[in-house]
Amino acid sequence: DLVMASTDLREKLKSIGQGHVLRFFDALESARRKSLLHQLQSLDLDSLAELADEYVKHKPTAALPKEIQPAKAYPHVPDESLREFYQQAQTKGRELLHEGKVAAFLVAGGQGTRLGYDGPKGEFPVTPIRNKPLFQVFAEQLRGHARDFGRVIPWYIMTSDVNDAPTRAFFERHHHFGYDSKDIFFFQQGMMPAFSLDGQLLLADKDSLALSPDGHGGSLRALHRSGALADMRKRGIEHLSYFQVDNPLVHCIDPVFLGLHALTGREMSSKTIPKAGALEKVGNFVIADGVLQVIEYSDLPESLAQQKNPDGSLKFNAGSIAIHALSMPFIERLNESGQLKLPWHRAEKKVAYVDQHGKAIKPDKPNAVKLEQFVFDAIPLARNAIVYTTDRAEEFSPVKNAEGADSPETCR
């Protein structure tokens, strides 16, 4: 089997100009050969050749939209004209929860390295008094909602290659924080190989490609590939509440937000907060060439970011905070062709590798291209996407850095 598989792969890799990744193969012992074959078989080699041409050998120029307008967001507190609609939304959201049609989706592939914590970020002790880990904060919220609505909320947790086993073990040790283990579905994020600047796949070792996670957008592909979507269909889930592991203030389940999303027949809805300042490092919701989308803070021209309304407030003031509601048919549609229909983002990075003699090289300047997909790039592909304003003090204080802004100290 090994010989057959390696012969087929050798041919395939040669045909896309990547035959070099098997240059040490024949000298490896059986277990290490298997490991490398497994890595290669889990990749879509045809699309890798296209990606190398499109994103690596050439730097795609992201043309800014011709017309960029501020996005209109539903307010946090409704005015008179919206009060009745918000009440209907609250009722609709509660109904969906009561009928068991909502699942929680936590993106938790990160490590706590930047926080000085050795392990999955979700294990980081975050609360000010009892030092509860992030995972426990979310589990208790979800169990509270399940109690209130009389229906369990299935919980889908995306891990990564590096933290999958420790995360599962942590949940076992803590008896799944009171959850029934059959209602938690762990699955791994996809990985992408790093390319040299001329489009060659890099080897991290003789038996391993240099791999890194494929970005939070890849979560939508992983839901499909892991069988999580099939599990949701079986359970009758219609909507997913998406949030990321580093924000313990998030409302994992928000009946008003879910109700607005469902009542307006949206495929993807997002929460926003007013920015702390014109140049805060968060994405910006905008209407670009007539379509709602997120423009990264690094891509929004400063002249626009600084623009003010007549009352002195920022004109572009809808910050993106990675909290979304997604409808099941939308995620299925994005995966229809077997290729997740989201653009790739290119970043030049320093990546350690082994050269053609098997010698380990640690570069001192960027030598590689990593490709990622971002979940907010699904917004322009969704029918009727909406944005709903939430309160920063109530729902956004991520733990990203060991100290300073967005640190455990500011969050506590």
Q: Would you mind describing this structure in some detail?
A:
The chain has 412 residues and is of the alpha+beta class. It is built from 13 helices and 19 strands. It has helices at residues 2-15, 30-41, 45-56, 80-98, 134-149, 164-173, 218-225, 228-235, 255-263, 302-305, 328-334, 392-395, 408-411, and strands at residues 68-70, 102-107, 155-159, 184-188, 191-193, 195-196, 203-205, 208-209, 211-213, 239-244, 268-273, 283-288, 291-295, 319-327, 345-349, 353-354, 360-361, 368-372, 386-389. The strands form five sheets. Strands 1, 2, 3, 4, 10, 11, 12, 13, 14 and 19 form a ten-stranded mixed β-sheet that branches. Strands 6-18-15 form a three-stranded antiparallel β-sheet, with helices on one face. A two-stranded antiparallel ribbon has the order 5-9. Helix 1 packs across helix 2 (30-41) and helix 4 packs across helix 9. The mean pLDDT is 95.
Helix proportion of residues, in percent?
25-40%
Number of strands: 19
Largest sheet: 10 strands, mixed
Mean pLDDT: 95
Cα separation of the termini: 55 Å
Beta-strand content estimate: 15-25%
What's the alpha carbon Rg, rounded to whole Å?
23 Å
Global outline? globular
| Helix vs. strand class | alpha+beta
Number of H/I helices? 13
Poorly predicted spans: none
List keywords for this structure.
3-stranded antiparallel sheet; 412 residues; 13 helices; alpha+beta
